[in-house]
Design goal:
Number of helices: 0
Order of helices and strands: EEEEEEEEEEE
Helix content: under 10%
Low-confidence stretches: none
Strand content: over 45%
Radius of gyration: 13 Å
Number of strands: 11
Mean pLDDT: 94
Shape: globular
Distance between the termini: 39 Å
Length: about 120
């Protein structure tokens, strides 16, 4: 099992930036990729971005491509999500997850507790 702890959420004005961090511990070698998902009120959890531990290959949802950047620091077992040009529609609870390289919630077996991101207009 992999334990995940997110940090870095907060309140920001439209056009601003935030960087989320996800510290992984436990059986981190058992997961192939790390992902970020988000869930807004009354909406389903949706894929944001993913990165593979080994090669650092990255994948993004169309809605964040060009604005968000996912990266990982293998030495620190930490994954980051740099979010620029934030918009009110980016407001959600952001979750870090470990699992397969996929955009599907069901392919990720370990989840963090989530961190709130609120973008004001």
């Amino acid at each position: 099992q992999v334990q995940l702890v997110e940090s870095g959420g907060g309140l920001v004005q439209a056009g601003g930036s935030l960087r989320l961090s996800c510290a992984a511990s436990g059986r981190t070698f058992s997961s192939y990729a790390m992902g970020w998902f988000r869930q807004a009120p009354a909406k389903e959890r949706e894929f944001v971005a993913a990165v593979t531990w080994r090669a650092g290959s990255t994948y993004y949802a169309d809605s964040v491509k060009g604005r968000f950047t996912i990266s990982r620091d293998n030495a620190k077992n930490t994954v980051y999500l740099q979010m620029n040009s934030l918009q009110p529609e980016d407001t959600a609870v952001y979750y870090c997850a470990a699992g397969l390289l996929s955009s599907h919630v069901s392919d990720f077996g370990s989840w963090g507790q989530g961190t709130q991101v609120t973008v004001s207009s």
